[in-house]
Batch of 4 targets.
Target 1
Amino acid sequence: MYLKIVRPLNVVFAVLSLAITADILNLFSLNLTMVASAIVIASFTAGGNVLNDIIDLPIDRINRPGRPLVSGKIPVKVAAIYASTLFLLGAGFSFYLNYPARLLALAVILPLLLLYTPIFKKIPLLGNVLIAAILAIVFIFSEVALTGIADKMWFPAGLAFGLSLIRELVKDMEDIRGDTEVGVQTFPVRFGMAKSFYLLLLVTICLCLYALIPYFQLRFGYVYFGLLIVGVEIPLLLSLFWLSKKMTPLRCSTVSLILKFSTLMGMIVIWSTALY
């Protein structure tokens, strides 16, 4: 249960962002900087997920009755201690990193994680944008931790932001029943499923076009293009076409699972840029 509550797949994706960044920059090495960066990323991601479950407990009683806190398998007080320990662990290991990376971790990422669920999540669309930005900034943080500057990882961060924003919008559509009953004003609650779908479609089209730019600029070749089309863009567009036929929370749940595959493929697409 203590592993389930941190959402290990999300933690793996976050740490994988560090590995991908290191490989793209030709700096992959199991040194202190890499290990400390991985611990900071994993701890903050896991802590944020536990905090989200604590604050979202009334919503999860409706939307996700199987979550560890809802089922009572983990007491709320224990979860609070767990989250605090994870945040403190990440903050502590940030002092093994260079000053810009430590500043980014403690002055930007950590405050956003702490404030997202209690404040920003309740603001339509802004919450989605912020959580997507937090996930995307892992690439920037990784580069800063490894090199001291943010230079080459802005495009991968943009891809990660787009994929994350799409998934966050779908999750809000999936959770509309619980959010409505509790009074959380997400975009689907405020504007309805139809308008949420049109926003989702717009973001998806923008992401698909954005991702193609470096290929047509001849920066990346056929491997990048093939992985992008087959692994990300086709599944995204097909799942949205299927969702358009019947916009129900159940279908949104299925699309959310498909988006996990697209997120993994998106990571592989980003990793493929190391070939060029």
Note: The domain at 153-276 is CATH 1.20.120 (Four Helix Bundle (Hemerythrin (Met), subunit A)).
Target 2
Amino acid sequence: MFIEIRGVGFINKGAELMLHAALQKARSVFPDARYVMAPGTDGSGAPYLQRARLGLYQKAWQWRYGVQWGDLAKVAPARLREKFGVVLDSEIDLVLDAAGFAYSDQWGAHNTQELARASRRWKRHGTKVILLPQAFGPFETEATRKAAREFVEHADLVCARDRISYENLTAVAGEQEKIRIYPDFTNLVQGVVPTGFDTRNQRFCLIPNHRMVDKTNSATATAYLPLLVAIASHLKARNAGPFLLVHGDEGDRRLAEQVSEAAGGIPIVEEPDPLAIKGILGTCRGSVSSRFHGLVSALSQGVPSLATSWSHKYEMLFADYGISEGVLEVNSDHTAVRRKLDALLDPATADGLRGQLLERSAAIKQEAEKMWQAVFAVAGSPAAGESPGAHEPTANRPPP
């Protein structure tokens, strides 16, 4: 059995965490399957060495000019492809798409159209297609609406990560039993605290995201860096042990360096292992994050957190945990932000919030487990404990 994990990579730690989460769960149910990923160059999100370390086979896959050039690998005998770990698209039995947030007008039409083209091929090959929980939409252009309608048609299960994503999908494809709402599934992954991490002096985590600059309006983009500096400076003045954690790529690193310098030398932590990043976040007293999976890793471990937002997925995540007021308005008065930080630093307030978050986390983790049961039912695993239609699409989430 060949199972492809797609839409993930190694530059963004959230995407890499989703890859680990999907592999861990799938391998627990299909231990003898061969796991496949589309290749990339060293400068891409899927370089060979990173894929090889996880034991991933290479899919012959390359779209150019609307043509799938990976089909040329068919001319190589099967035994030769096997020697080099190359798998044809037509050999894939199950596709698990864990893109996180790729199919939306915010990224243009390319990603959504690519998935629509690929889903047509998979339908012809008899490949089962499951879109794991992720944010979808908005789909307001004719190009993305048409493509979204098509990939939903050809998929076997589509998991929206929140109510707005569900509504974005059903607005173009109609309500269907196979479109469900399930939470992000990285909350089930256990983090590991790396050896040598300074838990005594690094207690409050700040995670920047350059998407707050290139995916927002000019007013928000301009106000973002001063806000981070004000937060870091206040936490430093309160002796809260602030540190900056690089959760993304070079753009995030540059922001971290700017904040550190402006705030008088806040430590910067760069950790290549996403499981270690989750472990680090679990040790923190609090966090302010602009990265979605940094927030999931913190909140799911009961760490009181604040967020900035450039997509509806942040507001929906905080609604799930019952703390909608924790999403900051970037253009707001810094005094109001400092008051929210002070609340997180107050032991009594923080302890109460931590208990609330852990209670919500337990319920959300149950929903993530139900999602995997639905996935394995669709995939044909005897380990699945329910039929694919066991949940109504709007009834399988804890209420906000």
Note: Residues 385-400 have pLDDT under 50 and may be disordered.
Target 3
Amino acid sequence: MIRSYATDSMRPSPDVPGAGQESVWSYPRPPVVVASERHVLVRLAGAVICETRRALRLLETSHPPTWYLPIADFAPGSLRPTPGSSFCEWKGSASYFDVVSGDFVAAAKAWTYRAPTPAFAPIAEHVALYAAAMDECVVDGERVSPQPGGFYGGWITSDVVGPFKGVPGSSAW
């Protein structure tokens, strides 16, 4: 369930996880990286651009997991470096990719940390994607929902509960 909050100063009450679910409010801060063997499939413009069982999940308080997929598991030519960078207090400097499928380009909708801080070294050579910009991102056969707000890159599946950062009124969480 995605909720909206009237003011940024309101901290939400975590949803109660059911059997087989985890609450994003039990994730740590600073975040941690956890390996996953779940089947991840990404389609763009009708083509599979990535398929892997070697993903990494970045887990951070109040955020659905951000999935980092091995660069080696992307279709050749589907990631095109693009200008621009950003900085994360935990992971370091990010660089961006256009995601390409045939003639379709999702401009700057993927990012990587080429030389992450030591705590996040496992995500080097991995790429995260904005799910909303893809035809679909699928984890173990379930189509993910993008983290609300358009800024964060988390993927929501039925096994995680919120509320999730990114909804209106959540900027101060």
Note: DSSP finds no helices and 15 strands in the chain.
Target 4
Amino acid sequence: MAKFTFKGGIHPFDGKKLSKDLPIETINPGKLLYYPLAQHIGAPAKAIVAKGDAVLAGGLIAEAGGFVSANIYSSVSGTVKGIERHRVVSGDMVDCIVIENDEKYTEAEPINNKKLEDMTRQEIIDTVAKAGIIGMGGAGFPTHVKLSPKEPEKIDSVIINCAECEPYLTSDYRKMLEEPEKLVDGLKIILSLFEGATGYLAIEDNKPDCIKLLKEKAASEDRIKVVPLMTKYPQGSERHLIYAVTKRKLNSKMLPADAGCIVNNVDTVIAIHNAVRNGRPLYERIVTVSGDAVTKPCNYKVRTGMLYSEIIEYNGGFKQEPAKIISGGPMMGMALFDLDVPVTKSSSAILGFTKDEVSGSSETNCINCGRCVDACPSGLWPAKLEECATNGDEECFLQYNGMECVECGSCSFACPAKKQLCQAIKSMRKVQLAKARAKK
């Protein structure tokens, strides 16, 4: 079997066996739910409800604040308690719509009643926008924007990121096994927008059951191909996934559309199916709960706005006090100090670990071994970039192409000196990006 990949990358312990064979289980939230107005890339949404308003599950509570923004829907029926500042995964306090759950889960009318066959291209894109769909793999980019490139006729590849290369995460894996028809149909809907494109279901080869199943489900689809990828982190990085499938290279100043590609995550594509076929907006997602401190590894279908603390409580709490809790994957996720943060559209996992590998490691001097160079999927010199960043040498950082870093953390993982290369590079990139925005 041919395997598509890229140069560089690493092979961390994947931890997927803890939860991969556990079917998706639906759980409901507690009494209060919190909906951040900024849970996507772009302008925050604008609240259209006020204290005392009655809402339904699937009812619009905040409208997109611009073209690059996304609608937000209530995931429960109940009453708006107000708009309050509440902590989110990043640790920031942000404006959130607070809704008291009446526990009836009465649903609003569908957002779309038309059949796909009767919809125009623009109506399909408008339905995706109306549904509030964003990239659910972590980035949170509004999906209708991706589906609206300036030159749609130049899109020849629609790639579905089925890699799920982050260790421990199994939410996409379960979706592929349990809802393969919806995934294939969602891809067909996207392909209907780009007549000259081929669809690719790109799956790492550590998921042979998914590869076999999706090949069966797409067997009659001439425009859809299942592409087996070499299992390697960060195989799911947009830039490197495009290279693995098409051999086209992107840099930090390019969008996938510049290479004739559209890339979407598994859960995002299924959300497109739900919106276009069933008129269902996005207010649920799958969250993996895993790690050696977790009582019962699981994959839960949860409603947005639900608190992480409620999920862990439902799960039976931690079997041992965790040394580290992470939202998302261990490579690119965020460490948490507070579990009273809400699930958003881009929440993929809650991981609890009995050991903190990072804080428990002692950093030593660089030994010039070059392992960070071998690991970097972008072909950079991470040790040099870390030196530039630590010394505040912006000119040096730019000279060595620091802005091409995708912040995957492969260099830090590979470093025998345990230097926090990625963290230093990430900090300098933030400085440079802020300066670039200030000049506009």
Note: DSSP finds 13 helices and 17 strands in the chain.
